[in-house]
Amino acid sequence: MTRQEATHTQRIPLNKDRVLRTAVALADTTGIDALSMRRLAQELDVVPMALYKHVANKEELLDGMADAVVGEIDPPASGPDWQRVVRGRILSARRVLLRHPWAARVIESRTAPTPAVLAYLDSMAGSFRDGGLSADLTHHVMHAMGSRLLGFSQELFDTSGPSGPPDPALAAHYPHIAELAATAAHDEGSTVGGGCDDQFEFEFALDLLLDGFEGLRRQGWTSARAKASHRP
């Protein structure tokens, strides 16, 4: 950096927005585990104590970073097709989370939803209600969707690793798992696993859920009636 550039950088006022934007960019580059208040201060060319005027501690920094990322999600589209509106918003969230691979971990680690996450979830609930789902059904839909509302989901097990024919000994003991592994499509960049098409699997599950919710809406489903039918 030249002396002129350094002087210009020093003139940029330090505020919370700049701290958070820099922290997000740093996490994108180095990973969330490498992020520290000291490292962030170095990136901003300030002493660490200067950061504490804008974020009280590391946890507050992570809260703000989560909100900054969630703030990148597209607003809901307009239109009467609630499934299209919800699907588009969730896939936007997924694109954002893929741009910031560390963000899902940070969002999950929060002890309570941050303001931007709460606003996003409130908006999503509103999309379901605008689509004609009752408050009762929407409540259970939100539970069923879980982290998928924010564009990510926890897989049952890690299937990453070298792809190829299953080990014969494994196939002998677990024939159905071996059969599924042999038929999986290859996607080297997948976060689901080395043998799965991550994006396809996500959209497949999302569409199944949305179609199922629409079926329940048409049936006039209520939790009271569902619980009564399951009583012995």
What does it look like?
63% of the residues lie in helices and 0% in strands. Residues 189-194 have low confidence and may be disordered. Helix 2 packs across helix 5 (58-70) and helix 5 packs parallel to helix 8. It has 232 residues and is an all-alpha fold. It contains 13 helices and no strands. Pfam families: TetR_C_1, TetR_N. Residues 36-55 bind DNA. Keywords: DNA-binding, Repressor, Transcription, Transcription regulation. Residues 13-73 form the HTH tetR-type domain.
Structural class: mainly alpha
Determine the number of helices (DSSP H or I, runs of at least 4 residues): 13
Along the chain, the helix and strand elements come as HHHHHHHHHHHHH
Report the β-strand fraction as a percent range: under 5%
Tally the beta strands. 0
How much helix is in the residues? 55-70%
Mean pLDDT: 88
Unreliable runs: 189-194
Measured between the Cα atoms of the first and last residue, the distance is: 74 Å
Largest sheet: none
Shape: globular
Radius of gyration: 22 Å
Keywords: DNA-binding, Repressor, Transcription, Transcription regulation
Pfam families: TetR_C_1, TetR_N
InterPro entries: Homeodomain-like_sf, HTH-type_TetR-like_transc_reg, HTH_TetR, Repressor_TetR_C, Tet_transcr_reg_TetR, Tet_transcr_reg_TetR-rel_C_sf
Protein name: TetR/AcrR family transcriptional regulator C-terminal domain-containing protein
Keywords for this entry:
single chain, transcription, TetR/AcrR family transcriptional regulator C-terminal domain-containing protein, globular
